Amino acid sequence: MDESKLVSGKEAVSAQILEQSEEAKYQDISHQFGFIRKVKGDGNCFYRALCFRLVETLMHNGSSMKRVKDKLIRSHEDLLTAGFDESEFKELLSTFLSVLDQLEADDREGALLGFFNDQATSDSMVKYLRLLTSAHLQNHADFFQHFVEAPNLKAYCTQEVEAMAMECDHVEILALSEALDTSLCIISMDSSDGQLVYHAIPEGSECSIYLLYKTSHYDILYKHREH
Q: Which has the least CB within 10 A, 57, 69, 92, 119?
């Protein structure tokens, strides 16, 4: 991947197999998935990968685009409820919605990659998802506080969730999935038995977004039938 890029173009999964020692796992991936899209490993890769793939799936689906836009607009209230000041997120949300508006008008992959490889725009969207994740965790503290190791949930959110370049844990992934009402599947290579591990979030859901996880890093996968 070009190190200057935050999100790459698609590459054939088969091209990855020759570079890896874990041949069996990559063979399994290549049977299910035709393409991979690399995401820069800067501590924000989960949020950027999920955001890119979610927006990409919305571009050719008007009803889903409207649903997610409406959810983002309503999320303004969720952040206020969690105690964020509007000045902390208003511009970030505006950028996010502006990108969605522009991609409705120009739904080419080049336009999408342009937004996500512009550092300021891309990071604004990532930062908003981080704040949304934090808000969801705090607004549902009765459930989530049992899953974080910190003096309290607020401290955890400030230090681990809201700060850029902080790698995420399963609890953040579940919270963001719930906040966006979006299902995803994480395919992990980090098992010692030679098998891939599949995590559907929420559990048992039908997934439209597939992320490959290896050594604390996330990239985007595409089924053979997907483009």
A: 119
